[in-house]
Each structure stands twice: as structure tokens, then as C-alpha cells.
Design brief:
Blueprint: H1 8-36, H2 45-53, H3 55-75, H4 82-98, E1 102-106, H5 125-130, H6 147-157, E2 163-166, H7 172-175, E3 183-185, E4 192-195, E5 202-205, E6 220-224, E7 231-234, H8 251-260, E8 263-267, E9 292-296, E10 309-311, H9 315-326, H10 341-352, E11 358-360, H11 364-370, H12 378-386, E12 393-395, H13 404-409, E13 415-418, H14 432-436, E14 440-443, H15 451-460, H16 473-481, H17 502-508, E15 519-525, H18 532-542, E16 548-554, H19 557-564, H20 573-581, E17 588-591, H21 599-605, E18 609-612, H22 628-633, E19 636-638, H23 647-656, H24 658-693
Helix pairs in contact: 4-9
EC number: 2.3.1.286, 2.7.7.14
Binding site for Zn(2+): 195, 198, 225, 228
Keywords: DNA damage, DNA repair, Lipid biosynthesis, Lipid metabolism, Metal-binding, NAD, Nucleotidyltransferase, Phospholipid biosynthesis, Phospholipid metabolism, Phosphoprotein, Transferase, Zinc
Length: 694
Amino acid sequence: MAAGGLSRSERKAAERVRRLREEQQRERLRQVSRILRKAAAERSAEEGRLLAESADLVTELQGRSRRREGLKRRQEEVCDDPEELRRKVRELAGAVRNAKYLVVYTGAGISTAASIPDYRGPNGVWTLLQKGRSVSAADLSEAEPTLTHMSIARLHEQKLVQHVVSQNCDGLHLRSGLPRSAISELHGNMYIEVCTACTPNREYVRVFDVTERTALHRHQTGRVCHKCGAQLRDTIVHFGERGTLGQPLNWEAATQAASKADTILCLGSSLKVLKKYPRLWCMTKPPSRRPKLYIVNLQWTPKDDWAALKLHGRCDDVMQLLMDELGLEIPPYSSYDMVHYGHSNQLRQARAMGDYLIVGVHTDEEISKHKGPPVFTQEERYKMVQAIKWVDEVVPAAPYVTTLETLDKYSCDFCVHGNDITLTVDGRDTYEEVKQAGRYRECKRTQGVSTTDLVGRMLLVTKAHHRGQEMSSEYREYADSFGKCPGGRNPWTGVSQFLQTSQKIIQFASGKEPQPGDTIIYVAGAFDLFHIGHVDFLEKVHGLAERPYVIAGLHFDQEVNHYKGKNYPIMNLHERTLSVLACRYVSEVVIGAPYSVTAELLDHFKVDLVCHGKTEIVPDKDGSDPYQEPKRRGVFCQIDSGNDLTTDLIVQRIIKNRLEYEARNQKKEAKELAFLEAMRQQESRPERESDSDM
């Protein structure tokens, strides 16, 4: 006898009986399920009796069916009709106006307009994976802030939104101009890696996705801290992990904001993850004292029953209506400032003063506030500066006024600026604090180039800046007056002539010869107003080989003018040479390259590959194809940079905003002259005081 009083044979018999009953139960369940799928009128009397005898199973199956239908309905996207949506937006606008402390919670739904897939929508990542379908890999670095991102940034600027709590890792909130202090990125930022060995943690903000080699519980990026040499890690919080980093997660600010909030607006989030964070919902407060909740989503969320208002609409549509209702203009993502070889020369000089160069780039908002409308978008400027070969790191959204706190945050020994002045909107020196602390150094301003000069060339449509041409009296008069305020001329604003020297070219050139095993790639063009379109093209070209040696052929000014017309090129050959040499993807420049790529040129430089962008190839003067020889040799390749920006588009931006740019430069010079006068008076005061004492 075995334990329990049953023999082995008896236990086996009992097990067979149990299995038989389970199989009978499953068969009964299948029978009842088939019957329930039939219409009541189609069921036989015997089937009716079986249903009556299986009431418990009928109840269970009907419950399962209701739950399945409920889950299916929750995944469906529902849109309010236009009139109903407008009515709800009017109610939401009233809540925004009356809120004392409004916090915005955002999810993947606000980035779908930037071609970044959400998770639980009909074409979301999780939805497709559950259906066994593949998910296409989007290049998130190409995404730009959406209308919703820009609207939130404007609402914060207007002090209508106090804080933003985001589940997204795409970095679009920061790129919209929203200050770091105003956002908690609970799941990290794919463009930020940190050194946790440094105290405080040292942040590195990149223009590329740092998570290429990282995964769940594996966060090392493969790069090291320039200060201590420790391994850097990403900031991403994966499913199944708990975020421990202070920044960019910023949980402390998120918790404080939730505790102060009287209104919460949820945009594009399913709330299935956020609902698991009780400190975001003030659950310890009695219901009457909890924040009013407003939800914008096309699908069901677990917080719908708690919401004061649920708006079924796309985030961009709702935010457009909301901003119209509030009477606020949504700032476009594409506002403007230029990066030219004068800036590159400053960075070259700054890099020579130290071991590691960190460059802070201001937002469009900051530039517009203190100087006037910029020419390139902040994202274009970020990538342009990163492409300059002397730059080690870029800090986006850098404060306009440089403080000791900023220098300490990035472990900088000192900061460097040109020997001109930069003033705030109220006329103060932006480097006053660091100068007083002895942590400021100057480099020489590059004579003969300024944004003022380049803008003037575009507006006047002159060719006087072309190499070998005299400056006409018309251009000289315009150059003297463009940006000149009543009352004088300061030494920094205005136009002077750029004089090229061999020493300047040597300073910009890499000086490196191609080595055995290098792939020599030749590209040619005007490369006028060297911009992000050129950078994206050269970056793609540089990535074609494991050991690329990229030679850029620059056409003569008259050659460019022949095929471009008008007053092109805006920059002359010498200026374009320095601009291209400053790019980290270029190894050598041919100054005054022939328009047609000849056999002699290919043989002389031992060219392995010739590349051209997707722009139109204009025939040579004799009607021949300028790339005929490389095509014959089978070494020609067309590259799609994925960027449509051209010199023409930049000039159109300038012309469209001509009056704003003229006003910008007049205001800038007026502030600088007032500052110079104040400095002169301060310098002369001690002399007068000493004379009176004698």
C-alpha cells in the first residue's frame, strides 16, 4: 500500500477517470461553443436541451465573448465628428486658461506625425508584433518635432504649461525648444549618454542614436568618458527595468509637478504604462482634490472613466484647434541662423587652446529673443556644428548667457569667444560672469565674413563678391548701410573684404595624404553657403567606404555663375574652400576644379569612385555630360542625401524675411554701439577723477 491508503493501480485508475472527465468537459465546452455561434432559430431541440443543461458553461462562454469584444473595441480608433471635437476643444481651452498648474503627459501618439510608430495603435509596434507582422525600422534621427511638440513648447513659453512628463525617448521635446528643466523623460533619451563614474554624472548629448549597441540590462554604448575614461551608458529604461538616473528621467520634477497640478492633459498616451506610476496621479489625495484630467486619444485608455473630458482626435488636429481657440501662433520648426567659415575658424582657434571642445548651440527662441530671426533651424545648426572637424561635442539648447554653473556642469575649464561682443536683449554682456571669474578667453574674429555680409549679398543680388571682381559703388553703399543704425558704425557689424592667405588654407587643411588601402572618392560642385544639405550628402559619401578619403572639387565662381545664374555663388571660391575644408567628412579640396571630370583628373588623384547628389546635372558648355568619363569607367555613383535643402531655398528664406533681417542687424548694431560708448565712458572716468584730486 502506498501513502494515503491507495495502491499504485488505484491511483492510476483515479487519474484515468480524472482525465476522462476533463476531456468530456472540454468536448462539452466545444459543443456548447459551436451551438452558441448559431442563431437561436437555427438550433435544434437537442441543442437547446444541451444549452439548458450547461448553464454554467453558457455563462462562462458568453463572458469570454464579451471580454473579447470589449478588448477589440478598446483597440479601435474612434474619431469625434468635427463639430463635437470643436465643442470639446472650446471646453479644453477654458480649462487651460483657468488652470493654476497644468502638467502635460505625452506618449508615442504625439510623434506619429513625425513618422515614428506608436505602440498600441492599429499599426503600432506591439499590435503588429502580436499579429506576427514585421515592424519597419524608422530612422528616428531624421524625425522633426511635430505641430503638437511645437504647440507644447509655445504653451510653456506663455506660462500656460508648467511641466511636461513624457514616455517618449525620441528627444523631440528638447528639439522643439522646451527647456530641460521643464521636462521629465521618464524612459530616457536616445540622444543622451552618461558617465556614471563622474560626480555628478557627466552627460554627452549626441546628434546620433546612442542605443545602437544597447539592449535590456546592457546599457554600455561602446564609447568612453573623455574626462575619466569610464564606459558611457545610455539613458533608456527598458520594459522590466527601473530607471535610476537623475537626468534625463527627472523623476523628482515629475513628482513635484504632479503634486502641484490642478489640471493634467494627456496627449497621445494609452496610459497603460503611466497608470502604473501612482505618484503621477496623486492617489493619496481625496478624489475631490485630485487634478482634473483631460485625455486626447483615438483609443480607450484605463483612465477614461476618471477624465473630466475625453477628446477622440489626432493630437495635431486637437492642438491646432486649441491654439486657435487660445489665440496663440504655433512657432514653425523651421526658423533660421547661419554657420559659416568664420565660425569654423573660431572653433579651430578654440580647439587649439585645450584638449576637448564642447560647443553650445542656442535655440531659435533664444536667438530670436536676443538678436533677431536666425537663418538656419536650430536642428540644422546642431548638425552643422557637429560636422566641423574641431568639435568634440555639441550641447543643444545652450543658455544664451554663459554662467559658471554651465561651465561646471560640463566640466569646462574655461569658455572661448571671438573678440567681438554678444549682448542680451537688455544690452548686457553675455560673458560678464565668466570674465569676472577669470574663466574666459578670446580668439580672433575672422575678418571679411559675417552673417550680415552674406545676407546683404543675397538681398542685393550683386556679383561684386566673386573672385576677381571689384566691389561696385552700389554694393559698397548697400554694404555700408545694411544693418547700420543711425549714429555710427561699430567694428564688428558690417561688411569688409575677405583676404585669403596660404597660411589660412594650411590651418584649415588636414594635411593628410591618402594611404594605401584608402578608397579615394571625388565629389564636385559649388558647395555654396555650405549648409546641412551638403553635410548630409558628404556624410553619406564618407560612409560608402571603410577607409574613405574624400576629395571635394570646387568650381570657379564664373563657372558656378554660368550654370546657376543670378548672383551665384553667394560665397566666392576662397570662402567656399574654407567652408568645405572645415567639414570632418572631407580630406582634401581641389580649388578651381574643372567642371567636367576628366580622365587626367581621375588618374592624377587615383580616384576609385565619383559621386554626385540627386540635383540636376547641367551639361558642360559644349553640351557634353560632365560625368561622361567616370560613367565610362564604371566608377560613377549618385547619392540621395535624403535632404532637400538647397542654396536657393536658403536665399528664398532670406528674401521672404528681408525686413526682419535688416531690422535685426540695425538693432544689433545699436546695442553694440551703446555698449561701446558705456565702456569708453567707464574707461575715461578714473582719469577725470584723478585730475580733480590734483
